[in-house]
Amino acid sequence: MKTIKKVMLPVLAVLPLIYSALAVFFYLPDTVGVHFSISGEADRYGSKYEAFIFPVIILAVGLIYLLIRRIIGRSSSQENARVNANLDVLDSVNLWMLVLFNILCVFFLYVMKYPDIMAGEQSLLFVILSVAVGLLFVIIGNLMPKTRRNSFIGMRMKFTMDNDEHWYIANRISGIAMVISGIVTVIAGLVLRNFNFLIVMVISLVLLLTVAILVSYGKIKKRK
Length: 224
Known about the structure:
2 domains; mainly alpha; 6 helices; two-stranded antiparallel ribbon
């Protein structure tokens, strides 16, 4: 793990607990909005201490990943360039995921105090979620071509696993599909501002990845 990632992963996992504690004790009222309907209306109010739920989940995700990474690192030779390259990609994905989780956590803390900003059919929540998910798709799409053949991440199909060149072709094309799907997801959230952006996201992801697999198979078959 590169030094900056080694430092930032645990920091980003712990940070939400710190600023959530500051928010709970110095910023939030005793009763806050803790659940919202599809239309963005607050349909349940609760204790401000429920603000710790999401930070605890973020911390758990970060710690579980670091534990799994440590186990994989110990079970693999340090000289195995393929394993180390894939772990580096996973580190990048988790780093950006934790960044997005931190942004969402700050947003949720603000919404807890001012739940009315979520009201209305065109809820701000869907804009935030679509941008977060879309950016994650874009990040994953850009990292997919950097993976090496393995049994746990990437486009693992029979026709991609026979050599490194075929693996790269499939993951590069699929990575482009992920980036396009991420952009479509962001646009859908900004335009629709409702639950329907999830439908657009799923349809675009399935269609684009299906096309990517077919195109990859065609290119690899020609090379064979």
